[in-house]
Specification:
Length: 282
């Protein structure tokens, strides 16, 4: 590993080691406040949950849907394959980040599916008049609206990156936090923009994603079972995995020519090339 690689990885390790369990307090408090507020409004039933935010959803949907191409591309970043493909270079330059990302992704999966099954909230297209809002792409009509899986995925990955690359300078730190939260919010709200989720779905999903990211960092600190990914001996495994991912993304591109797919594919190609060269040299 070059000096630059070591520095990036060491900086990431230093930043991630600063994460405390107390960082989970605020997001858990926010979830509690939302739950209590919904209970106070009598909105724990699916019909009331939808009705109390119908106007807010319609307004946000109509405003965001004015940018259909942007919305449709943004939602792709909530796809785990797409957003994680963009992070593959970190396996070379900062493998500790990927160790946390793996744990965080597992936590997010464990939190997302049970909540969707538990709440059974109908999608907007399944309960609202489809003529009252804009649907971009296919219409989602299932009863799995809460929480938004795309929002969870986006904030899970962005939370790990947020803390791993946290600047030391106070001004830069504020700018970095605002930037990452802003990107995550845009990705999450794009699900409202295409008519796939209610507003609270993405808010709650974003909070769960943050919890997943922090949890992944904390778990990795105590159970470092993924440390082997930094070993060049295992590069052939990643070459195979990245090749499979590239094929899947190329299939997506054939069905839907979105710019974000090209970015993910380019990231996979470049990373595969670098680790292949490194392995051959080894």
């Amino acid at each position: 590993m070059s000096t630059y690689n070591k520095t990036m990885n060491e900086d990431a390790i230093s930043n991630l080691n600063k994460i405390k369990y107390s960082y989970l307090f605020l997001p858990l408090l926010l979830l509690a406040i939302i739950a209590i507020s919904l209970y106070a409004c009598g909105a724990w039933s699916a019909d009331h949950y939808v009705s109390i935010q119908k106007e807010a959803f319609t307004y946000c949907n109509l405003q965001l849907s004015q940018f259909p191409v942007l919305m449709y591309n943004l939602i792709q970043f909530g796809d785990a394959l797409v957003i994680l493909s963009l992070c593959t270079f970190l396996i070379i330059y900062a493998p500790r980040i990927w160790e946390s990302l793996i744990w965080a992704s597992l936590v997010s999966a464990l939190l997302c599916c049970p909540f969707k099954w538990l709440f059974k909230i109908p999608r907007p297209a399944a309960i609202l008049d489809n003529g009252s809002f804009v649907i971009i792409g296919k219409a989602y009509v299932g009863n799995n609206s809460l929480p938004s899986g795309h929002a969870i995925t986006a904030f899970t990955v962005l939370t790990v990156l947020l803390w791993a690359f946290m600047p030391k300078n106070s001004v830069r730190k504020i700018i970095w936090i605002v930037l990452m939260i802003g990107i995550g919010s845009l990705i999450s709200l794009s699900r409202v923009g295409i008519g796939a989720h209610h507003l609270l779905d993405v808010v709650i999903g974003s909070i769960i994603g943050y919890i997943s990211g922090i949890s992944g960092i904390l778990i990795n600190r105590n159970f470092m079972i993924w440390s082997w990914i930094a070993d060049k001996e295992y590069h052939p495994l990643f070459i195979i995995i990245f090749t499979i991912c590239s094929v899947i993304i190329m299939r997506k591109m054939l069905l839907d020519h979105q710019p974000v797919f090209y970015l993910s594919l380019l990231s996979l190609f470049i990373t595969t090339y670098i680790i292949t060269v490194n392995y051959v040299k080894k």
